[in-house]
Amino acid sequence: MRVSKSLALVAAPLMLLACSPKEDGGSPAPAGPVKSEVAAPKTPLEFDQASPAAKVRLKLADEIARFPVLHSRLYDDETTGLKKFAEEAAKQNPPRPYESQSQWTLAATAAPLVSLRREFFEYTGGAHPNHGSGAWLWNTATDKEVQPAEVFKAGADMTPVQNAVCEAVKSAKTRREGSVPLSDMWKCPTWDEITWVLTPSKTPDKAAGLTVLIGPYVVGPYSEGDYEVVVPLSVFQPLLAPAYASAFAGEPARLGNADGTPTVRIQAEQ
Fold it and tell me: Domain ranges in the chain?
């Protein structure tokens, strides 16, 4: 939903000035065309829509507005998805009180990369709501989305990162009450199954790790919840693609919680 603002023009005073005689008594100055100035529409940071069938909500962090192209595309993509969700909910007979919320925050900036983190909540009448995390990587130099694989060398062996995630999850489970040990049923995620955002560095405007986001049912039952673990730069620095190697340096500014509980959660509606 875009909000368009226009500036009203007061034409009458301008025309009177244009037709006034010159001070030296000469002919009136010709009236030139009056140019209309319209403020560029601003992309909102929030979207909220409610109906008997569904309630949908989007919240973008204020910092995202620093990147206008990214901001606009993210807002358009998310609101399109939320509206479609509401339309599908309205087809239910009788309508059920569906709900979908999406929240995006700025995970890290490491020129030219901007890393965004998503938290979502969705309820469609089941035994419990679904929730989880997502990520989006953006190149500010090209104003284009970056696929996660592009950050690393083509064909790079990501086994070191995968192993580091597995060890971090094992360690976190020992610190979380009621956790289930990894087994044939609850295995460590493979590299292809990993969702990550950049971890800020102690060095300004650099990244120094990958914050890995693991949703419910991946390494344990739903009741165990989500996991968030950090893989430091030292594990994968040799694997970085030359185009993005300069975006990384130093040590992680934060390592997260010892029991792997997420450091970011979806905000309750105010």
Answer: 42-146, 148-263
Other Cβ atoms less than 10 A from the Cβ of 162: the count is: 19
What does the block give as tokens for 236?
Answer: 């994968």
Per CATH, the homologous superfamily of domain 148-263 is Heat-shock cognate protein, ATPase (3.90.640.20)
Q: How far is CA 191 from CA 188, 229, 245, in A?
A: 9, 14, 20
Superfamily for domain range 42-146:
Fervidobacterium nodosum Rt17-B1 like (3.30.565.40)
* pLDDT band at residue 192 using 50, 70 and 90 as cut-offs: confident
DSSP summary character for residue 3: B
Backbone φ, ψ for residue 11 (5° rounding) = -80, -35
* Residue with token string 């192209």: 69
Tell which residue, 128, 125, 121, has the closest CA to residue 95.
125
Model confidence at 239, pLDDT cuts 50, 70, 90, reads very high
